[in-house]
Write a sequence for this structure.
C-alpha cells in the first residue's frame, strides 16, 4: 500500500522577511505620499532639504520619502508578525507608530532640542507642531493598512 503524503508548506524565513520588507517599502511610500501632500501645502520640503544643505523642494521630497520607507521598514520588519495581522490592528498599530515617530522627530527635535538651541520656551505646541502630528497620524494609518494588505499577499 502506498501512502501519498504531501508535506505541509512552511515558508522559508527569508520569504517571510522578503514580504515584510516589501510591505515596509510599499507602506512607507504610500504613507509618505499621503503625508507629503500635507507637507507640500505647508511648504515644508525646502526645510527638509536643508538637512543636506539644499533648499530644493524636490530634494526635500526625496529625503522625506526615503525617511518614510526607512520608518516603514522599522514597523514591518520588527513588528509585522504580532501587530499587522488584521486591518483593525494595522490601523491602530500605524496610528500609535505615527505618534511615536512624531514624539521622536518633532517632539524631541522640534519641541525640545531646537527651542533649547534658540533660547526660547520648550514644548510650546503651535500650529506647525499640531499639523505635523496630523501628518504623522495619516502616515501611520496608511502605512499600517497598506502593510497588512501587502503581508496578506494582496499587493
Amino acid at each position: 500500500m502506498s501512502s501519498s503524503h504531501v508535506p505541509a508548506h512552511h515558508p522559508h524565513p527569508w520569504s517571510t522577511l522578503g514580504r515584510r520588507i516589501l510591505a515596509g517599502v510599499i507602506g512607507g511610500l504610500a504613507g509618505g505620499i499621503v503625508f507629503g501632500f500635507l507637507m507640500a501645502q505647508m511648504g515644508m520640503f525646502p526645510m527638509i532639504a536643508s538637512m543636506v544643505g539644499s533648499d530644493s523642494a524636490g530634494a526635500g521630497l526625496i529625503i522625506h520619502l526615503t525617511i518614510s520607507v526607512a520608518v516603514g521598514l522599522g514597523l514591518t520588519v520588527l513588528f509585522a508578525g504580532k501587530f499587522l495581522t488584521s486591518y483593525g490592528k494595522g490601523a491602530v498599530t500605524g496610528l500609535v507608530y505615527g505618534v511615536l515617530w512624531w514624539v521622536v522627530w518633532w517632539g524631541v527635535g522640534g519641541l525640545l532640542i531646537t527651542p533649547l538651541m534658540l533660547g526660547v520656551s520648550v514644548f510650546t505646541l503651535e500650529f506647525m507642531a499640531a499639523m505635523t502630528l496630523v501628518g504623522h497620524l495619516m502616515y501611520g494609518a496608511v502605512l499600517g493598512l497598506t502593510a497588512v494588505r501587502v503581508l496578506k499577499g494582496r499587493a
Notes: Helices lie at 13-41, 45-49, 57-83, 87-118, 127-151.
